[in-house]
Amino acid sequence: MPFISKDWRSPGEVWVKTQEGWEKKKVLECTAQRYAAITNYNNPDDKEQKWSDEDGDKSSEDEVARVPPHCHITIKCTREIAGFNGLSEAVRRLDFSSAVRDVRRFNYICALLELLLCGQRLTHLPGAAQKLLLSMLEQLADQVATSKQNLNALRALVVGVTALREAERRSCWGRPLGSRALWGHHDHAIARIHRIVNSIRIQEPGPEVVPKLHDLPEECIREILLRISDHRDLDAASSAWSVMASLCSEHRVWRELVNFHFTSQQIDSVQKTDADTDWKKLFHQLRRLNGLREDAQYAETLSLCRHCKCLFWRSLGHPCIADQCPEYRERLKEAGGPLPPHPVPPAAFLKFFSL
To answer: What keywords are assigned to this protein (predicted)?
Structure first.
């Protein structure tokens, strides 16, 4: 006679119904705003919607005890541990939807979307991950339209996803390979993104806004240029204004850029003598030889905790076993102290998943 009861091996997952479908509550517990709908970000009604428990409204308690965005991952599968890392779950748990509105994490999200959307990886992902990435791109477009910044990065992503869409149209007898309903959803999302991009208008500030960039002395303009870490921005600034062109031709700007991206050993291996050094030519030579510092391109990157194998944003932290377990903390002190977290660039982040 069968015995019907709860499975003693696991209590099961708590699921929450959202506008996108059913989602695990543990995945949504790390989101910053706790709204259910991640797509249709431009709908103001969706921004205020929050999920609640079946027992009642506990939004006030959830906001007090909110868990920082983090995601435990499986580094290596063993005989005892056979784990699988899901991209869509990691994107939700790390709260990428709110990261696009953070100026420190914006470039990191753009680089990650460029690796996924502008290549052939998007079509190899599950349908839920595809919808989530296009939703992130829509949120990013809405953020650019609001802030009027990083328009070139948005246009590059839109061009890449449009080219991918056109290539998929001819992949299988004149139509995309896969679900027609899914690609119909993608078409509507891409059309909304195009409407947002086409509606962006950057206007020059009026005469009441002072001082303008042209009113600043050369010393201030030079200090601005010395804080630019991308050589492409220096070339764009040179073509935009004659004063910036003369300042960008100074050796000091390119010398600071060389010292920022490369070590002294790398510089000494190429530089013959200190006298009459063409620092701009030396920078491009070192760039082709060694590449640029990937961690210097982003104000903040994901970090990997070496103790609990958890991905997290360093500025927000995460619930680590070294802070919660006194016995583990004592063992760390005997071993020499806790290890610093390891930075995870976008390319390394994608290696954790089977793409």
So the answer is: Nucleus, Ubl conjugation pathway
